[in-house]
Design a protein that fits this description.
homodimer, 378 residues, alpha/beta, Rossmann fold, Rna Polymerase Sigma Factor, Chain: A, 2 domains, 8-stranded mixed β-sheet, two-stranded parallel sheet, 16 strands, 33% helix
């Protein structure tokens, strides 16, 4: 009957905040404006009287607002349960934690699968191209709505770390600190390439139908999204982690099948990842969010990271993982140097882990104490 | 008017050798037999009187028999022109060089796009699943046909190196030496994963049509093959090489397009690689050859590399490249240790290169002198 999940946080509900209108929308980097925008968010813990204990946690590509606790809707545990809760790194007895689904997403916040008021149909490819900065602008509106002027910290891994960095740059006076984890100031050519290949796989699926697959009973580009997700999964794991987890073990057989069926455990694992991702993610959101990741560049195209930190005032804690080859430690070290060159308060943890990029979701022994200590000195 | 290519070897013609019949075919590892089999091959230099100077060069996944010189059919230079020719590492003044297209290929040797005598149609998925050992068994028949009992060396990079290793194991008395380059005794879980994802991309293309796309005028699974090739290309290059070649440079524009069009140089490069690969490669061959690569395991499933070298007699020169993350140097070092444990003559060059797996095709300054010296002492 499914796994039994428990969380000290108990059941958590998703809230919704809507702002803007078709006529008075949020101006975006692409030049268009978008409205109304609905934001799905969850909160944990309580805001203190001087509203100074709010921490915004930003999620990665496939995440959502359900960062911890038991989701009231589906009973699932949050994606960062190991880090958020009473007595944990993000201690809900001390801090007021907020997590919202990103703009362009498919977990309650307005995205390409949302209804477009102008047409009465899902936006699909009529949705504007968005950026990480646009996601942050939406979060800023949510924070204002919650009556918070200044965040004690903005935290996130992977794309969540990009949002944390963008917050520091866009709203230097509203951010006391930031904790960018397993992230980068800008994608390398290799990471740009993976994103493009994933999008190609989705768009190559005939069921993608130029983004129009939302009608009832219509087939979705499941094969394409599965391929994109499989590519992603390999980039999230290390060669070492895959070797120790699967090696060349065969799946339920002693010999090769001499066919194109699933022979190896690793093939079976990937197949499963593709299937379950299709149940929970919108292919068009995958296109839009990866494009936002591609476009993120803290140096604004100058290539100069030192000037990128010029306006930033936040205290910074960077965390990277040794086996992360998607956003390798050298990319965090570059940011540490650039921040130090601007005389910012900077801490850096390069955690030893075999788990690759995904380590930020799995690892708490090394991350948690460093984060706790960092938050205390603020 | 196209590039001007020159080669000291001048024009080289492809030859064809056919053996076996429908009734009397080659027994394959999968249990089926296949015949007739046609092998496309090229030769360079002259066989000496005691037939002791023959070197077989084995090609990689997407290669063909045209290793050097100007192809009589299309004017193209060979894929290893830097290494094969008068005075080069594989000196055609000294050695008789042979290169043949692999079984399962699409460059003249029998493969899934060849006509099946039983049906009068292309084999498509009726083609049997083949192995690296099967490829080598076909090469053995070609070598016999050329009147050669013993090869001075069997050489190859990537999948070519697997064939070189398989030769040593299958025909220990027919191989004086082998030079496995940028290769592995067996794929890691990560490499298995890339192959599977590539096949998925091809099979997800509606035009794949379960392998039946050979009719005149019929659309081919070009989008799927392009995605597979793009994935391959990233694994052949290093993060460093991609960064220095493309970085985040935009393609013919100063700002983001805010669309899903090609914005970055690296996207344009990948797109081009996908397009040109479709002109020259058969999607079903891609499926069959990657499966053969997956199935290759010098340890025969035991995981024990030391016993894998037990029957081998050949002198060995292993070459790997520091930035090759598809078949990283540690995989060559494992083979070196295993061969040494069997008291074989072993040399090993770990060449420093930023070019990743593809370095074996691009680099001659470090490879050539070591190979020349190795061949001289045989």
């Amino acid at each position: 009957m499914g796994k039994v999940f428990t969380s000290q946080l108990g059941e958590v509900k998703t809230h919704y905040f809507t702002f803007g209108s078709q006529e008075d929308g949020l101006p975006l980097d692409c030049g268009r404006s978008l409205g109304p925008i609905t934001v799905a968010y969850q909160t944990y813990g309580a805001l203190n009287s001087d509203r100074s204990n709010a921490i915004l946690i930003c999620h990665a590509l496939s995440g959502d607002s359900h960062v911890a606790g038991i989701n009231a809707e589906d009973g699932r545990l949050g994606w960062w349960e190991i880090m958020v809760g009473p007595g944990k790194a993000f201690d809900t007895n001390k801090y007021f934690i907020i997590c919202s689904n990103v703009l362009g997403g498919c977990k309650g916040t307005t995205g390409p699968s949302s209804f477009c008021p102008a047409t009465g149909k899902p936006y699909a490819l009529d949705f504007p191209i968005i950026t990480i900065d646009d996601m942050v602008r939406v979060q800023k509106r949510l924070i204002e709505h919650l009556g918070i002027d200044r965040l004690l910290s903005v935290v996130g891994g992977s794309m969540g770390g990009m949002q944390a960095l963008a917050w520091c740059q866009l709203y230097p006076d509203q951010v006391v600190s930031a904790i960018p984890i397993a992230t980068t100031a800008r994608l390398s050519a290799q990471s740009l390439a993976w994103d493009e290949i994933g999008r190609r796989a989705i768009m190559a699926d005939q069921n993608w139908n130029n983004g129009n697959y939302y009608d009832i009973g219509q087939a979705k580009p499941e094969k394409g999204l599965a391929v994109a997700r499989m590519i992603g999964h390999i980039t999230y794991l290390s060669d070492e982690a895959l070797s120790s987890k699967f090696g060349r073990r065969l799946r339920g057989r002693n010999n090769y099948s001499f066919s194109f069926d699933i022979d190896f455990e690793v093939e079976s694992y990937l197949d499963h990842q593709g299937v379950i991702f299709n149940r929970r993610f919108d292919p068009n959101s995958y296109l839009y969010i990866t494009r936002a990741i591609d476009y993120f560049d803290l140096s604004q195209g100058t290539g100069n990271l030192t000037t990128a930190f010029l306006k930033i005032k936040a205290s910074l804690l960077f965390i990277s993982f040794t086996s992360d080859w998607l956003y390798p430690p050298y990319q965090s070290r570059e940011m540490v140097s650039a921040a130090q060159a601007n005389n910012l308060y900077v801490e850096y943890l390069e955690a030893t882990s075999p788990f690759g990029h995904d380590a930020f979701l799995l690892e708490s022994e090394q991350q948690a104490p460093v984060i706790e200590k960092f938050l205390k000195i603020l």
